[in-house]
Amino acid sequence: xxxxxxxxxxxxxxxxxxxxxxxxxxxxxxxxxxxxxxxxxxxxxxxxxxxxxxxxxxxxxxxxxxxxxxxxxxxxxxxxxxxxxxxxxxxxxxxxxxxxxxxxxxxxxxxxxxxxxxxxxxxxxxxxxxxxxxxxxxxxxxxxxxxxxxxxxxxxxxxxxxxxxxxxxxxxxxxxxxxxxxxxxxxxxxxxxxxxxxxxxxxxxxxxxxxxxxxxxxxxxxxxxxxxxxxxxxxxxxxxxxxxxxxxxxxxxxxxxxxxxxxxxxxxxxxxxxxxxxxxxxxxxxxxxxxxxxxxxxxxxxxxxxxxxxxxxxxxxxxxxxxxxxxxxxxxx
Length: 333
What we know:
Elements: H1 13-16, E1 19-23, H2 27-38, E2 42-47, H3 53-59, E3 63-66, H4 67-73, E4 76-79, H5 86-94, E5 103-106, H6 110-113, E6 124-130, H7 134-142, E7 149-155, H8 161-171, H9 174-177, E8 179-182, H10 184-199, H11 201-216, H12 221-230, H13 232-250, H14 253-266, H15 269-283, H16 286-296, H17 300-310, H18 313-323
Parallel strand pairs: 1-2, 1-4, 2-3, 4-5, 5-6, 7-8
Antiparallel strand pairs: 6-7
């Protein structure tokens, strides 16, 4: 069975006397920086001048400077900027300051695994990947809990890369919930596959297909929205708490029977074969190459699809319905 690491397996003292430079103050950046600060670590945040996050980070009691200055002063440099800007920021602001003895940290293996960043051989390179959005990680931490995480070692020059990884994981609260060791390749490939086929791509496509099928058959869009999107949270919460068995135990016998006999008709062998093709594209770099080129071109396809999706009927209906349900704290972007 895979070994899980917890608080007792990690020594926070390994990083408490070091300066930790967090580059970026978005979803992950703010959570890492604040959790580490609350755990008594010396944290700096690196941003570009004029960043709207600069004032927010200072208001939270953090020292803020440019990415170049933070990389120069930090012993541990953590890349938490959006992934598509990692490479230029690394080249311009980080690489010149990667002297022996420093540690370069990532929360996702994409840029290392696909060689968008090639670090010098003289520094440790590690990954600590919380399995949660940053705002949830921060909320769990402030409530005394944590979220699970992964660690991986790419370069271990010091001989203490794993110990530092666990210390950092403890600093952000992941060892409260449990940490598993992996590799940059495994984390990157499983993460991309999961996002594309299940967590984001698969779920959103399934929701839209169900919604559109009901609406095209003449049912009210509002009823279709509640049935195919809104109620999904209740089912996911049950699965989160106790797996598929607990969800099936909690729903009606009719729903459970429908799960068994109709689910495999929707997610059939054709879907499994497409999943295998998608995994292959992740493994051989096809997807990464396509995404890198998309960013280099200014994201024309990405931005077009994003606009069209926001204007779709399920989003229009959802915005209207959520506005009528203030108790659920609706969010609009």
